[in-house]
Recover the amino acids of this structure.
């Protein structure tokens, strides 16, 4: 069981380091993430290294039985990098080229950045691959920067050739016949830069896919260098926020363990539900490999307006919940709260007030508790929710029937109802083997492939219970609408056909006494029966017996009790 | 009577075309707008044409007795165009040059764009000018793109020389003495690009006038080419939305019929009022020539958050209302809902669900109804409202006494009250012959010329009833305030003088039991008498007998019943 | 006692000038600010002057006993300037270079702009330094434009070398160890341009300091030129708004009298409180030198949505209040309301309606009243509030514990309570001699130097009463958090220690029957005693006896009655 956090000794004089390790021992810290933001210190000018201070840190930690999760520092290039390689600074959609002065100023497709990344990763691997403190490699930090420069354009075209094979196929997949967007040469294709009016949704979606893959290529390059020089597991830390452009299933196949950075923004039970959601996602992405809470706030919530403190004991309860859901460790950002810099008001395990503080005492108690904890025993989940980052991205497109469609929010809301009912839940991709689950829920999964539909159909035929909610399965993987009636690819399986969506501007009463909001549909029964109806209208929730199982369709946004009623009816 | 819509066969395989014409016949479609977004297909690379597919479409439609409203595709240049001519891509006020990837990416003043526009228009005219299906030419689409590039700067200066003749006159008209903006050479004048603080309102207004004229020059160039090769009427489609930078009176003199694109955003009666407003504007702009509803949504409203469906039958009621107000046809965007692209969720006459659908059945019923409809008989309007796009633009200036002054909104609100009272209403320009109207209303018409004032005065003297509302006539055509007391040029006619505007932060009670909102004034009577007063204050509405008629002044924002009371008092 | 306003005769034909001076005499106007926006008229092309019209204006005013506050026109460079020197146009953080077309389009660090500024200032000084009408020099107008160009980068680096001496010291002061921002050469440092994520708060703060100093250097350059040719006092006009990047203590040492431009936005007593606040600030900044209300609105409030009129008499009451608080004159923007230009709807002493108007009559009455007024007698203030622009800027940093922390708002709210209680109040800098005040209040003063802490401590020890409110003294002058517990540098003096801030999302009840909002803290008593407690919690307001005085700490946002209670307890 790991316990610890990001440790940035370069922010402090060396005499503070001695207090640090003393306090770490007191708090049973056994893993420190080091070097995340150290590039400027390790390579003060291009190709010139200064490892002395890091040698001393590594030795000091090792001497105190603290292992190191050693980072490659490529998420924060030093000022000299951007000045030597202005073409490697990221460019916004409108052509604005960003400058250094914060963090994450890089274009992952710029050759100069790739060279610099490999060079510093190689230097670290050679020097610390055999160091006894090195327990894990932490590549980069919170992958997520996107760019629209010419390097990206070149890389995007290569990626598109690989995906679509021919320009004809791309024109077809993107429906470029609309608005005269037909491409007659690969060179005409650009990243989705600022244009006069709405962009093509297939263009946007493929660019998100490409960005995920381009970042992953950067990760793999470093991982492979690190593996040459060390035998430690290699990983990176996912930001658990909606904006991250990573395909988590694809990425999780490339890391040795799944690491997540998770910052809650609700107090009390709401925060615990967020912990359960993030943990279940991480555990599911890991698919049997270990997973680790790589960062969390220290006794604080991160709300839009800033930081709010947790009540005493709340941080401990949340940390134990991560562990109960399978985390192999609980880390924090960061060990010691910074005096300056842009995150100086980000709480630390050692706060500004110092170790003589309630916060540090709770942290130290937590460390001791975790060090004595037996391994978590966990019942297998019998219920699963479908998760697909591509489907989530597709709902970010600017021209859907209404704004407000949000895959992640729908999934999280669904998960919370299951969590409130005490149901252990996994997440699965629509193409995964789901036969072992008693029930599978599919909230607003916009895009679906034919293969995934076949998989879901086989699952139901084999006795499974599938509960699909509105705006699922209406588009193909190129975001083209599936014709003939909604919900497209799932019509036969669900035994319904919908001609018209009827988004709501207020609540609508349902026959089970609950209300639907946001969305409704005129549902025609083509095999299914109505389980819940709109008061004064047609079917709201339907049930279709297929083989040994049943497929349910929910055509409106249910509240928690409405969804609980459906789950009860479905015997979940 | 035309019935039909935009038909984009290039989005579909040819076997779908056969179903299309079969369904069109079923729905009595007799006019299809073709080619609006086909440039990339018609001219796949610069100067290389592919007309084969369009030949087949034209023949197929002709064989099925469906006429074609054939578009020049210049609103959506293909990707190759912007890459060959980056200087012809539009530039925002802040200097951002846009790229292809949507539609409408062109600068109408760029020589390369004009050359390319003439070339494709000529090619289409030569090939289809004599085709028996060609019934009408549809130049471009929804003119409205503005740009701030150096080509525009050059063209703007030429336009200014023509308008103001001398630099002294321009400096005077623009009051450049304020803020040290005096121009000592024509070359110093730029489009209104991003600057440190507020722009000069006369500069902004002249730029809007120039943009309208520059777009109109582009239209006329194509129209004249088309007339060389065909005898069909030539037109374009106006967007009926507030942002359009077109001077509709000027444009309507150059088109053979007025075409409007109209998307409602209110359900029920509100939507019908919007239909009446748009129809009355179009009919008035046409000044006796025919007018056509060139685009409308299919059984849907377009609200800020997306699309909402209309109730069954509502689309039919609205379509019949356009016809009752003089439309010579009812078209839609678009025939078949797209599978992909940025408007894939824009409803179609054939929806995603296909022809076996309530929507298509309502469309087909509507087509049959219209085909059997006798020509509309329409009473002449006895009431008119003043419409002047220049006055509307002037209220977009950033430095008025308060924000929220909106010419179009004031006009639309006034029109709705007349519509609710069953009064047939025309729109007229302040300089038009208005002698035949029983009453003329003038809601918040900021700018007015001396000639227009003389016209209005003669109208009242001759027995007319003029009802002017607040913030009318206070500025001259160069947006200079008319001095000596508000409402400037109309003081004598109205018999009032106002020293101070008193914008309201809440409602104020009026003597007739209604309330005023938004605006009030301290009105001095200089010949007029008070018809309605502010409770506890001075005159709110005044009446001035002038010659055989009367001139009314409304110094606050009345609600519907307040305006109805005034109309009743005025005997309208 | 001065009375008058900005006079822009270049906007009007010369026959209007004769009416102007007649009306000025009628209104007892004795000071006209001339030439603020005249650069384009005075120097119509580079190096070519036209002083004829200004000669006539100066003579005419002098002949009518009206003195002139003669402006250098450098705030509004003419169009030719930006076209000849595009590198002298300001650049936004994102790299957008602005163009002429408004006002204030200059980069104060551009050599070409400095040359042009000195040239026009010299020409004016030579021509009018000995003119009998010239009573005062008005350098520039409302200093405040910031820029991010390469000229600024160069000047910023020189400024930083001067402040920090060595790059090591700068890296330390800015905590560049965080996020890999270590600078290894001065040339790597840029203005805070648009970057990927949050900027470094010390970087932002030093840039604000630099901007104030760079603008001040521009001012001093002109002042020194003017002093060579004339003996009149030299000044400029501060905008009394939160965004102004001027260090007012520093600037006020360089002007011969303090001039402020003040526009209120509240009616009635709120507006009077705003007048008192602005006047007390100006008088305090002047530190015994005279101060002048250089601009105010004419009988109008300037609210976010535009302009609202004051009630009759209200303008007079406010003007007299400025005088009662020490103003040596009351000026307005502007004499005659403009017909055109971006501020055509800005009210004038002579409004659009002309001199036959309620507004002009009130202005003329006010002029006569002021001309007969004896000099203001004013009691010395016994209470002071700390004011420090640097501390205000530091609270604009983007990464504080919560958004909404606002130094100016806290100070103004505190001032209003004292004003409501009739307490005469000064403002002082934390390093000033404050020994003569009975009480000193310190609302949310984030940054504090060790020297200032020593000053405050000596004040309390000597018998003073210091009332400190939350989030004061927590950072050092480089925005680094002072460690060991909040409020950092003030812990010993206040006898309290705070480990955790607890920002509030709703109100919290206090033991004195009032409520705290926005912010709370867990306060440990380390010498102080609780004066007010949180209901059900710990100390909210504390009192610490130190030497002959007492130091109070207020850990939440009190309302007016809560603060009044504390003042009463403290015997203020």
């Amino acid at each position: 069981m790991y316990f610890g956090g990001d440790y940035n000794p370069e922010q402090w004089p060396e005499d503070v380091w001695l207090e640090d390790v003393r306090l770490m021992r007191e708090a049973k810290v056994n893993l420190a993430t080091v070097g995340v933001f150290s590039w400027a210190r390790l390579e003060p000018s291009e190709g010139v290294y200064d490892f002395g201070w890091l040698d001393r840190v590594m030795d000091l930690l090792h001497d105190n039985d603290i292992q190191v999760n050693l980072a490659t520092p490529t998420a924060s290039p030093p000022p000299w990098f951007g000045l030597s390689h202005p073409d490697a600074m990221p460019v916004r959609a409108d052509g604005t080229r960003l400058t250094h002065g914060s963090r994450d100023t890089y274009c992952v497709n710029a050759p100069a950045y790739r060279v610099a990344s490999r060079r510093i990763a190689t230097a670290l691997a050679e020097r610390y691959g055999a160091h006894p403190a090195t327990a894990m490699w932490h590549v980069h930090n919170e992958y997520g920067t996107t760019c629209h420069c010419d390097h990206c354009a070149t890389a995007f075209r290569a990626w598109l050739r690989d995906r679509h094979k021919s320009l004809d196929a791309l024109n077809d997949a993107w429906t470029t016949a609309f608005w005269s967007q037909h491409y007659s040469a690969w060179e005409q294709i650009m990243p989705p830069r600022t244009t006069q009016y709405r962009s093509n949704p297939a263009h946007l979606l493929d660019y998100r896919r490409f960005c995920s893959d381009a970042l992953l290529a950067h990760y793999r390059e470093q991982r492979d260098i690190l593996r040459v020089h060390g035998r430690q597991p290699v990983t990176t830390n996912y930001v658990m926020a909606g904006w991250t452009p990573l395909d988590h299933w694809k990425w999780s196949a490339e890391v040795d363990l799944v690491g997540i950075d998770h910052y809650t923004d609700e107090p009390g039970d709401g925060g615990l539900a967020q912990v359960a959601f993030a943990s279940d996602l991480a555990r599911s992405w890991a698919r049997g490999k270990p997973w680790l809470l790589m960062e969390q706030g220290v006794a604080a919530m991160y709300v839009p307006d800033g930081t709010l403190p947790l009540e005493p004991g709340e941080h401990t309860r949340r940390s134990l919940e991560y562990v109960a859901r399978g985390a192999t460790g609980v880390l924090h950002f960061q060990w010691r709260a910074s005096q300056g810099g842009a995150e100086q008001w980000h709480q630390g395990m050692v706060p500004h007030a110092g170790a003589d503080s309630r916060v540090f005492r709770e942290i130290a108690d937590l460390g001791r508790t975790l060090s004595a904890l037996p391994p978590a025993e966990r019942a297998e989940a019998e219920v699963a929710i479908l998760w697909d980052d591509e489907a989530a991205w597709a709902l970010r497109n600017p021209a859907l029937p209404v704004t407000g469609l949000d895959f992640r929010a729908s999934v999280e809301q669904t998960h919370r109802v299951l969590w409130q009912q005490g149901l252990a839940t996994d997440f699965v991709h629509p193409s995964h083997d789901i036969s072992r689950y008693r029930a599978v829920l599919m909230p607003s999964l916009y895009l679906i492939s034919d293969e995934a539909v076949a998989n879901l159909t086989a699952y139901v035929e084999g006795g499974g219970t599938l509960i699909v909610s509105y705006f699922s399965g209406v588009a193909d993987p190129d975001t083209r609408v599936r014709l003939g009636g909604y919900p497209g690819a799932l019509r036969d399986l669900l035994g319904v056909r919908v001609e018209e969506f009827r988004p709501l501007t207020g609540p609508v009463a349902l026959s089970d006494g609950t209300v639907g909001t946001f969305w409704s549909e005129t549902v025609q029964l083509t095999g299914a029966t109505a389980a819940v109806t709109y008061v004064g209208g047609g079917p709201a929730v339907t049930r279709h017996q297929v083989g040994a199982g049943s497929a349910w369709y929910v055509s409106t946004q249910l509240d928690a009790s409405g969804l609980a009623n459906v789950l009860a009816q479905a015997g979940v």
Q: What stands out?
A: The first strand of chain B starts at residue 2 and ends at 7. The CA atoms of residues 39 and 77 of chain B lie 6 Å apart. Chain B touches chain A through 50 residues (CB under 8 Å). The radius of gyration of chain B is 25 Å.
